[in-house]
Specification:
Elements lengths: L12 H15 L4 H6 L3 H17 L5 H15 L2 H13 L21 H14 L7 H35 L7 H4 L4
Length: 184
């Protein structure tokens, strides 16, 4: 159970209720981090705008690479909500979610490509405390994905670190998105 309760739809205001309805239509449920953020109207809106902008802008990397890096970050931080939601997003992208169970074996598992392995190692290095990113690693990523792709990868991993750490701190756990999402 989250450390702060979600704002019920009846108390979310007209625009909040509208956002809740859109979220339910898209994901099957209102994401608990969204409903909890409604306690702070400014952060609620800035978070939504930032998430939508990132979603629209992050188009340079293949979805497989981007989503596996985000998923790996969530697992390293230990955010059950992010892992649940990320699994659903990968399924909605048409990606193989069965391989997520084997992410610990990414280095040898044949379902992971070399590009995905680079992205997972980078997610690990960025998520470590302190970070362990090296010049050689960045050069290898730039050679693989180009500068724009490297920047996109860096940004999505950084944002997932923020999300996962905030959700973990607030005690937000999985909601059953993968099973509940009506969009198949």
């Amino acid at each position: 159970m989250a450390r702060i309760p979600a704002v019920p739809e009846s108390e979310a205001g007209v625009l909040g209720r509208f956002v809740y309805r859109l979220a339910r239509k898209r994901f099957g449920l209102v994401p608990e981090p969204v409903a909890i953020a409604r306690h702070h109207r400014g952060l609620f809106w800035s978070g939504l705008v930032a998430e939508l902008a990132l979603e629209k802008a992050a188009t340079r990397l293949p979805a497989r690479v981007r989503e596996i890096a985000v998923y790996r970050t969530a697992t390293v931080v230990g955010c059950a909500w992010c892992v649940d939601f990320g699994t659903m997003l990968q399924r909605l992208e048409g990606l193989d979610v069965e391989r997520l169970r084997r992410i610990a074996d990414f280095a040898t598992d044949p379902t992971y490509t070399d590009a995905e392995r680079l992205a997972i190692r980078y997610a690990d290095a960025m998520t470590a405390t302190p970070t362990t990113v090296t010049d050689a690693q960045v050069a290898e990523l730039e050679a693989e994905f180009g500068r724009a792709g490297l920047l996109e990868l860096t940004q999505v991993i950084a944002v997932e670190n923020q999300r996962a750490r905030a959700n973990h701190a607030l005690g937000i756990v999985d909601q059953g998105f993968d099973a509940a999402c009506a969009v198949r």
